[in-house]
# Entry
Amino acid sequence: MDYRQKRKLSFITIGLTFLLSGIEYAVILPTIWRYLQLLEAPPYFLGLGLSAFSFSGLVSGPVFGHWSDKTRTTKTIILFSNVFEIVGNFMYFMGYSKWLLLSSRLVAGIGAGAGSSIFGFLTRTTLPDERARVFAAVMACRQAGLLIGPAFNIFLRLCDFKLGPFIVNKYTSPGLFMCGMWLLMQFAVMGLYWDIPPLDSFAEQQMPLREVRGEEDEPLMSLEDDDRTAVADSYGSLNPEQTETTLSSQIPPSPPDSPPPDTSDPFENFSASREFLREEVVVLLTAQFITLFNQTALETMVTPLTQKYFGFGELGNSVMYSLCGVEVIAGFFLVRWLSRVLEDRVVLAVGLLICSGACVWCLIFLANPQGGLGFELFEFIIGVFLQLLGLPFVAVSQVSLFSKVTAEKTQGFSQGVRRSVGGLATILGPLWAGGLIGNLYVMLGMMMLLLTLIMIMMVLSYEKLVEPPRVEHAQDSENGG
# Structure
């Protein structure tokens, strides 16, 4: 099997991994609130349950990322992390008490830490000009999981039988279902995933050719348009294979199946303060924190809010999350189109503006809904629509910029730090919202304050939020002797 085939299968496996993570979130979130109520858990346990998953991912992310940077392998890490997903979801299925349920999300969250290793792998095995497209495709796979996940819930809610000493019902069945799915994923990783060597030398070989052709030549623009079409097709069909087929066509013929021996330590001259305390990195990490804090706070608020004002049950919430998934994937279409004419920092600014508008809308109309049921539902739909519309803008632009302003050799650890910052946000967001469901003015007011802060930071640091051309220039000078 040659390099392109291994790369293609590995990327498909990564897409399936993120697809499962989205499905897991989508089948558990609509039911966990009532599940906890049946276990006689107090309301704040909803925030604790959602935060527990993020907390363990926050701790495990940098560890897995450091592991992958040191060893330049990710297959073992993914197999190891999936064990925690399997065990955690089985614990969720058992559900004897609220504490076991809380522990199950804590254990499953450890498996989510492998995402930092995966993003490091993607950075090392993609060329700079295709990296944003690959990241966007991976994110779209997770959103596809969020889209199709509620469809599984429609069938899982019909479960009502016993499996040995365990009761299988609409609340416990999501845990059993995801346990089986992650178990199947183990076999997929073992058979389809390869620790292929990085593309460092091949990126350098291709750079002079692109300089000769010129980055503004028509053929290059045509290639990028084709790539966008392929990615768009993959979003629409929820098939990551189509995306990888087109992307792999840019890769030169097969390199050696195994990387040359490299005994150098990627952390030999590494300085965390020098890497992460630069102005542009701080802004991107702050944007990551604030947007995820606000997103998870609103997600925590939504289920109790729909139950209180609209009488939504498990089915209603599942349909709502499915429609939200459609919007987010459509948002990725829009971001892909805008990325042809706008810089990453402009896309990030647009996303933050949309999120700010969403927060203002929620503060005005959702903190104290007025009018009849129809008008209140309209206000709710507009607030959710605006919030979800801003997410693809912020997500794609800040991940793309972050991968380019941080060192490639320690990308696994850097991505772990970035995901840990996001994990901290997804811990504090549900905790903040869970304790203030009855006082939305305070909850939404803090979110608006945070968005104002990141907008000010971005304005002051706007000139530094660019894809550094010095990286490409350095490679060109090396190739040119």
